[in-house]
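pipeline: protein-struct stage 2 | run 1193 | Methylthioribulose-1-phosphate dehydratase
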Amino acid sequence: MSILLEEKQRAFADLREIKANLAARGWFPATSGNLSVRVGGFEPEAFTFAITSSGRDKSVQTPEDFLLVNEKGQPTEATSLKPSAETLIHSEIYRLTGAGAIFHVHTIFNNLISELYWERKSIPVDGVELIKAFNIWDEEAQIEIPILPNYAEIPRIAELVEGAIVPRIPGIVLRKHGIYAWGANAFEAKRHLEAFEFLFEYVYRSHLLHKGV
């Protein structure tokens, strides 16, 4: 698909802003994590997105921070940059949801909670107000956030994405790894990510409280 220069620039600007914001929170330890924003038109089998380059320090801004890739995770322009190792997971989420942005971070709480509820294969959240961030307005709403295994081979994880997606839950957690949160655009994806992280901390601390720790 043809991408206008201003579409590319807007996507890079959105990524630059969100990268700085999340890096300031310490959500990209040791160059971990990745961010992407879809660019231009969309068909499930043909789309383009901007994504963070592999191995970059996300606490600083450089001209080599982002690149464009297609639906297969392959660069669409001549470049020496490599897309994030987890680009295929982004590709699958875009293909299946038509989202406009996907943000992936590693935090202490999303790692702890994924291990705590691993046998259940989902993280239960019951009646917490911030569930409304996902446009779920039921009184005392209860949700289950899916957890996938963290295989070393990214294609093995990507194959499981379709079966894990819950239409009203804009996120998937990898066990002892991190959260993928998405939305219609960068603003919404950030809102969803912040809500997930709040809920993870709440559920984990609530578990400790009821354990009497």
